[in-house]
Amino acid sequence: RLGNGILEASINSTIINNVCENNSYGIHMWFSDSPSVINNKFNQNYAGGILILDTNNVKIYNNSIEYNKKFGGIIVQNGIRGSISYNLILENVGYGVTLNGGTVYYVIHHNSFFNNLIYSNALSQASDDGEGNYWYHPDD
């Protein structure tokens, strides 16, 4: 059984310049407020790259999220306010980014999505500003 790369549950934390590979999740964040995830590599994790549960005001910026399995690149559940920007989201088995039930007021912009198996949000939200994203899938 695999463990998680980084477990995070705190206030105003910054996760910066890490490489998390071959874990269950690269980072598992829950019940946090105002965390930043910047300049990390989350690659080849079994369950997914970044899992965020019940966390508010998240900033996910300039990360490489590649070749993660099962649930995909970035999974957010029950989060209020956040931004996902300037990330490379490549070749994940599930969604590149998933915003599940209870997630509101997220802005997703200027990311590059390449060849994720399923490459859209699980639930569409009116508050998502999809500006400047690049989506590529070879079957399009």
Secondary-structure-based class equals: mainly beta
Q: What name does CATH use for the topology?
A: Pectate Lyase C-like
Low-confidence stretches: 119-130
Number of spatially distinct domains: 1
How many DSSP helices?
0
**Can you give the helix content as a percent range?**
under 10%
Beta-strand content: over 45%
The overall pLDDT average reads: 86
Organism: marine sediment metagenome
Protein name: Right handed beta helix domain-containing protein
InterPro entries: Beta_helix, Para_beta_helix_rpt-2, PbH1, Pectin_lyas_fold, Pectin_lyase_fold/virulence
Domain Right handed beta helix: 12-121
SSE layout and pairings?
Layout: E1 6-8, E2 14-16, E3 19-21, E4 25-30, E5 36-38, E6 41-43, E7 48-53, E8 58-61, E9 64-66, E10 72-77, E11 80-85, E12 88-90, E13 95-99, E14 104-109, E15 112-114, E16 134-136
Organism: marine sediment metagenome
Protein name: Right handed beta helix domain-containing protein
InterPro entries: Beta_helix (IPR039448), Para_beta_helix_rpt-2 (IPR022441), PbH1 (IPR006626), Pectin_lyas_fold (IPR012334), Pectin_lyase_fold/virulence (IPR011050)
Written overview of the protein:
This protein is mainly β and 140 residues long. The relative contact order is 0.15. It is globular. The protein starts with 5 loop residues before the first strand and ends with a strand. It has strands at residues 6-8, 14-16, 19-21, 25-30, 36-38, 41-43, 48-53, 58-61, 64-66, 72-77, 80-85, 88-90, 95-99, 104-109, 112-114, 134-136. It has a single domain (6-136), classed as Pectate Lyase C-like (3 Solenoid), CATH 2.160.20. InterPro entries: Beta_helix, Para_beta_helix_rpt-2, PbH1, Pectin_lyas_fold, Pectin_lyase_fold/virulence. Residues 12-121 form the Right handed beta helix domain. This is Right handed beta helix domain-containing protein. It comes from marine sediment metagenome.
